[in-house]
Amino acid sequence: MMDWTDRHCRVLHRLLSARARLYTEMVTADAVLHGARERLLGFSEIEHPVALQLGGAEPAKLAQAARIGAERGYDEINLNVGCPSDRVQSGCFGAALMREPALVGECVAAMREAVSVPVTVKCRIGVDDQDAQEALPALIETCARSGVSVFAVHARKAWLSGLSPKENREIPPLDYALVYALKRARPELTIIVNGGIGSVDDAEEHLRHVDGVMLGRAAYQSPAILAETDRRFFGEEPRDVNAAVDAYIAYIGARLDEGVPLNAMTKHMLGLFHGQPGARQFRRHLSENVTRKGAGLSVLHDALAFLNRVRTEAA
To answer: CATH second-level architecture of 241-314?
Structure first.
């Protein structure tokens, strides 16, 4: 979810679900150590529980970055061993680390030594021509020996040669059965399944076999599905989407006063009314107007008016 799940996106998602655990986009350890930390790591208190997702392959640097994240208040530090983007391949981390389970074990051991919050791992089932039935258990076993007990497993291989990052999210076949088998073999571990899960109904089915479900593109492209998760999985009242929008508008207004561009926040709303009458006009109005000079909340209110107009006409 690089370039997607930034702090503004996470606020919107939190307003839609009080209980879902949120994850940052992956931030490299080097960026944490040498970059603009507030821009990279800043988050709103409303986001809790929120996990910082790190990328890297050097235990000492990852330990230091994890410590910085924990000191800033993150509830969990997650090591990404699953991202297939060009940027992580060139740095020999992300999904490329599936080939080096011993190194991953050293990384998470160093991270756990540095922080008191949980250290978790997000991975693929394998890369390239690896035998996934061997590669996945090997990685899990090595990390478990280093004290990791929570794993989010994207149930696809990553093909680091021949497929683009986008193709890696869609073309390699899903193997949920392998993730289910991992849970049966290691019942003491918390296993979360990820990849190709498009609805809350799908998530409920997966939870018959594993401990958790991670939603990526589905939650971003149609964020309103998050409003149902509190009732379905936590026995609480579902969030009202309109109330969440009102709260997000207030958030946007405050950030505009701080100089944050309007489009940096409204881009996360484009799929919010997916499938509803007026949603296309809503998206078009935002897309055409949020980057104009001086664009403010009136642009968002005008976009929302398309939805309200259609609802009034339908009534």
So the answer is: Up-down Bundle (1.20)
